[in-house]
Design goal:
Layout: E1 2-3, H1 11-21, H2 34-45, H3 57-69, H4 74-100, E2 112-115, H5 123-130, E3 136-137, H6 141-145, H7 159-163, H8 175-190, H9 194-197, H10 209-213, H11 220-224, H12 228-235, H13 240-256, E4 261-265, H14 273-280, E5 283-289, H15 292-310, H16 316-338, E6 347-351, H17 352-357, H18 359-367, H19 375-387, E7 395-396, H20 407-425
Parallel strand pairs: 1-7, 2-4, 2-5, 3-4, 5-6
Helix pairs in contact: 2-4, 3-12, 13-14, 15-16, 16-20
Length: 430
Amino acid sequence: MKFENFRQSPFWFRGANKCWEGTYFMGTRIRLDKDDLIRSARKVTGFRDFGKDFNEEPLERLLKSANEEANLHPIGRFITRERFVSLLSIRLRAEYFFNKHPQILEQELYPAWIIVGLQRTGTTKLQRLLAEDIDHRVIPSWEVINPVPIDPELYDLSPVSRLNGLSVYPNPGDKRISVANTSVKALKFMSPGFFAIHPIDAMQPEEDILMLDVSFMSTTPEAMMHVPTYAQWLENTDQSDAYAYAVKLLKFLQWIRPAKRWVLKTPHHLEFTNLIEKHFGEVHFLWPHRNLQESIPSFLSMVMYNRMIFSNGADERQVADHWVRKIGYMLDKAIDYRIQGNNAAKFTDIYYKDLITDSIGELEKIYRLNGGLTPSLTGRFKRHELEHRHLKHGVHQYSMADFGLTATEIDTHTKRYGHFISEHYDRKEA
């Protein structure tokens, strides 16, 4: 099964947008207004306190860019509004728990293995394999979408309850799982080809970038829509507050379901390894590598699928211009951090082709950090591989030509990374 046409959304989707847009004169255009979003979140949750560390500026800048630059179609505006209200609601619910149970924030954050590879380099496969280790705490999709319970009384988080053993988690009545399952079904309906690129499963781990989204400071918006003004502001803005708040959410998650180590991942972290070191404590970075002439066009096609869900007239060349430069910038920032002092020792390199052909060999490299692989773990990893075979959701078709890209153009923006891989790790191709 092949999926090739990221340029055109399903017929019903285009028809619905056209009909909805035709009713705008009747006042049906969805509002994207900060004060309206805040009022809606407070009404939905019944809470008012966003916390003393809540900064409205990132939301204001994102909304301005989305309204003026993103060319959102009606369904895109609807999804964006619902998503932003949800993010604000998460923050309101989190503050309720932090105030009720201050001991949550008194914890030390678990040590973490943080996967920082670029998009389309095997990061999802690697994280889902590592999630098979019962000592690891990951964030499944249902929990990423809503890291804080929708029903604040569903779980008893008191210290006494923890001493007696937490109740079953997730509780069968937890609405977050049904919300996630509905989101997965909706995405399949709106963009069936997306799953050949990035298979989403409500119960499988997802990117913790959504912990940063709650502060409205992440690269998620520029992967979903054309927001260049916001993206430029973000790149030049200190994101310490977003990382500090992400740690607060991670402390909540480890309080509600304990483990021994975090296994997190998002390409966003490549740009901010220094902030991770500052806010997270004990970390080790797992950096997957892949030939950029394969990974970059693959990622660009994923961005196109994303943008068709939100916008009219998503432009391939515009996407390429933005992200090829951005990827080079992210790689440079990670290399800058890595070559400082003894930071090289904080990284383990994983190579995409090796991960696909010999995942156990790559996992053995990682587990040298933790006493080595056991036969039990090896068995779990092999079972996961059998149950989640490569290309299960179809073949992802993409090429540099789809975006008017050449190998020379990619090399121009990523030359330093290419030299870094070949000179330091004796690999010309990952």
